[in-house]
Write a structure and sequence with these properties.
The chain is mainly β and 231 residues long. The chain is 8% helix and 64% strand. The protein has a 12-stranded antiparallel barrel. A hairpin with a 2-residue loop joins strand 9 and strand 10. The termini are far apart.
């Protein structure tokens, strides 16, 4: 599949899903951002925007995600990737889950050993589950994606709990598994989040990157979620 054909498929899917929603549905949009740096001088910057009607039930989901990765090899390597996608979101009382299909356009198609399945060009399928509950202290998140072009996968599970009965701060742990042709790794870490009650989230994380081929590293991460529109 050529990149141009894949792009048309993604855009057509987005239009079909958007047309399938009812005329009265109000669309909500959300922006995310991530910055991660480790002791091997690997830097990842990620930004994305998604939109979907809110509420309970099945609804279309469209968005685009871009990331910039730079790391040391023989020389300094820089990789820029953009991935538009479309899919479905299912909201339920206390959480939501989703599945999407998109295409990653990458400035570098070689096996660069990046930290997510978007490395390299190719069709990418993703799925996720966010469960915040209906009043209990625990929250759960499970994310995963697979790039058919680079045959790379990435998945992460996270569990957090409220730091106090009425506090907006949450603390917890996470484990990510990633791999591709010739490499694999797992990434355990701790996370602290601040929720303002209106959808805004600021998170700080730290942990280890443990690669099967060595060169383990300590990482730190800043991430944020910002609602752009809520109706």
């Amino acid at each position: 599949m050529t990149p141009r054909k894949a792009a048309w498929i993604v855009m057509a899917g987005a239009l079909l899903l958007g047309g399938a929603s009812t005329a009265s549905a109000q669309w909500n949009s959300t922006a995310i951002g991530v910055a991660e740096y480790d002791t091997e001088q690997t830097l990842l910057l990620l930004a994305g925007v998604s939109a979907s009607p809110g509420g309970v039930g099945i609804a279309p989901l469209v968005g685009v995600q871009a990331n910039f990765l730079t790391f040391d090899a023989v020389d300094r390597v820089e990789v820029f990737t953009v991935r538009p996608y479309a899919g479905l979101r299912s909201g339920y009382e206390g959480g939501s889950l989703y599945g999407t299909v998109g295409y990653a356009f990458s400035s570098r198609d070689e096996d660069v050993g990046a930290v997510a399945a978007d490395r390299g060009s190719g069709v990418v399928v993703s799925a996720g589950l966010d469960h915040w509950g209906t009043g209990g202290p625990l929250g759960y998140q499970l994310l995963g994606s697979y790039n058919f072009g680079s045959e790379a996968y990435w998945t992460r599970g996270r569990v957090t709990t409220r730091a106090g009965r009425t506090s907006g701060m949450r603390v917890g742990g996470e484990v990510a598994l990633l791999g591709g042709e010739g490499y694999s790794a797992w990434q355990p870490g701790a996370i602290v989040e601040w929720h303002n009650g209106a959808g805004r989230i600021l998170g700080l994380g730290a942990g280890m990157k443990l690669f099967d081929a060595g060169d383990d590293a300590f990482y730190v991460r800043v991430e944020g979620v910002l609602p752009l529109s809520r109706r």
